[in-house]
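Show me any protein, keeping tokens residue-aligned.
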Amino acid sequence: MTRPAYSSVLQPHHDYSGTAFPLNRPLSACRVRLMIKTAIFDFDGTLADTIPLCREAFRRAIRKLDGRILTDEEIERQFGPDDLGVIQKLIPGKPELHERGRELFIHYYRKLHADLAPAPFPGTAELLSTLRNLGIRLAMVTGKRLESAEISLQFFHLSEFFPILETGSPEGGVKPDRIKRALSRLNAVASEAIYIGDAPTDVDACRSVPIRILSAGWAAEADINGLRKKKPDFLLTRFEDLERFFREHHENEGL
């Protein structure tokens, strides 16, 4: 049969039809479309390639505080908690520096935004507008702290699309709770919702809700292999395929 032009990650031994391939579903599910009424988005690496901005803001904040110059790997190992939580992990045992570190991070995050993250992924505003016009309820659940999330949403002129914004915690590990809170605030049910996120850990978070997840594999540094190993419900490698995915799964009979 003729295969659709999706650039999703496919398993060659599986049948494929419809939209993005449901990696962990039985073959019979490949032809079953969903009924998506709610879309909950992650931010970093999902709507914008802001990971390099985050890394550099943390690097400069730590260098300013204690002179160390951290590598990308040293910084990324601490990702999971919100901005303050990452600072706490990068400067262990020095609680007197943590708040100053957070302030410096925000200073550099704002200062470097135009150079390191000048725009969201092409077509982001148009996609969100289309989803809203289709009647799909939108929310954002991100591990970022509220301040940095609002800086980016305002910088990209995307705030209007996310009346529901749930953010992270210094302790980390709160995404399942935040997704549940977003669903509750939207008066939505998980069976008619989907989460879109780029991290392999997002798959684990969604399993514990439970809610379907579409793994975002389109950022330059996306961990495609890591995502595939987690077997998300759907995995797309091109942002431009999202609109078609939602159109094919909007107001169809669910599973």
